[in-house]
Amino acid sequence: MILISHRGNINGKNTEKENHPDYIDDAIKLGYDVEIDIWVIDGNFYLGHDGPQYNISLDWLSDRIDRLWLHCKNTEAIERFNISFQHYNYFWHQEDTVTLTSKNFIWAYPGKQPINRSIAVMPEIFSDNIKSCLGVCSDYIKNYK
Q1: Of 51, 55, 70, 81, which sits 20 to 30 A from 64 (CA to CA)?
Q2: What are the residues whose beta carbons fall under 8 Å from the beta carbon of 17, sequence distance 6 or more?
Q3: How many other β-carbons are positioned within 10 Å of the β-carbon of residue 42?
């Protein structure tokens, strides 16, 4: 099963550290993939949930390409990755039941399981049945190890 830390969290929400590059690296060092919130503004890359907080470089992203799930937070981000960086695993969603990532993973909104071979997002919120899932993305990803 693919285990994906939500914004770097592994054992509960930590809104002060979420999406911080060091926090993401800590989760990767523990063996997890990480879903990050990414913004592109005037060609620059930023991490942050409600807005751009942490400026990062393309090199930073490239060094972690195989471990990141990029949740594009603005249209410039989704356009940039779709045009220039198609080898990344990126997606856009709001409250859709599912969306497909650029690598054809089914990314499923909380409470929508079971969906065969999907990534269950926050399944603990609704006690989702994850037996047929390919992976889980959670603030409590340590509990799924």
Answers
A1: 51
A2: 8, 23
A3: 5
Spell out, as residue ranges, where the chain has pLDDT lower than 50.
none
CB 138, CB 122: distance < 8 Å: yes
- For residue 62, give both structure tokens: 């490239």
Q: What's the pLDDT at 94? A: 86
Please, are residues 78 and 98 in contact by the beta-carbon 8 Å criterion?
no
Are the CB atoms for 112 and 123 separated by under 8 Å? no
Distances (CA, A) of 74 to 1, 5, 41, 113, 118: 29, 21, 9, 27, 24
**Tokens 């911080």 found at:** 20
